[in-house]
């Protein structure tokens, strides 16, 4: 599959009490210090008034981060906009690394009252209806890569992949692990997987 507009979301566990605009200065500091590797960070947009909307968006040339509140569940979402090298598995791993680095960076931010991400659940989407229509065929074509990646991230724990075909929605897979793992550990494992893939490539 030739798709690169990948989307990954990790969910906040037991969201702390935070001001509505809490993420605005945090994302501005990321821009000031260009804290995201291989990204040109350019702007912050706040959509807190949109019910269950994208929250605060950090805009970059390569991809956007947002404190997404879809379905009433706060999380950090990364939306890739520019092409990535390698196979689909390589691209998925790269996007997971970027998203997890963002999660860990937010967890380390003192202004966010000890925010933590649940390491047992995530959502993967493909924002390309032409390359990845929301069908069972698309799911079967990506399932092997997802199974392999999640087996590494969760060290062999049971992982469920849930997909519902729908002609009017983006392709999406909801992933749930029986094992809760810290985002720092998931990031370490994702980086190791990316490094191994680079060596074999």
Write structural notes for this entry.
A hairpin with a 2-residue loop joins strand 3 and strand 4. 33% of the residues lie in helices and 25% in strands. The radius of gyration is 16 Å and the shape is globular. Helix 2 packs across helix 3 and helix 2 runs antiparallel to helix 4. It has 201 residues and is of the alpha+beta class. The protein has one domain. It has an 8-stranded antiparallel beta sheet with strand order 2-3-4-5-1-6-8-7, with helices on one face. The longest helix is centred in the middle third of the chain and has 20 residues.
Count of DSSP strands: 8
Coarse morphology? globular
Helicity, as a percent range: 25-40%
Order of helices and strands: EHEEEEHEHEEH
| SS summary, helix count | 4
Number of domains: 1
Please state how the strands of the largest beta sheet are arranged side by side. Answer: 2-3-4-5-1-6-8-7
Keywords:
201 residues, alpha+beta, 8-stranded antiparallel beta sheet, globular
Short synopsis of the structure:
Helix content is 33%, strand content 25%. The chain is α+β, with helices and mostly antiparallel strands.
Topology (elements, then pairings):
Elements: E1 6-12, H1 23-33, E2 41-47, E3 55-60, E4 63-66, E5 75-80, H2 88-107, E6 117-126, H3 136-153, E7 159-162, E8 171-177, H4 183-200
Helix pairs in contact: 2-3, 2-4
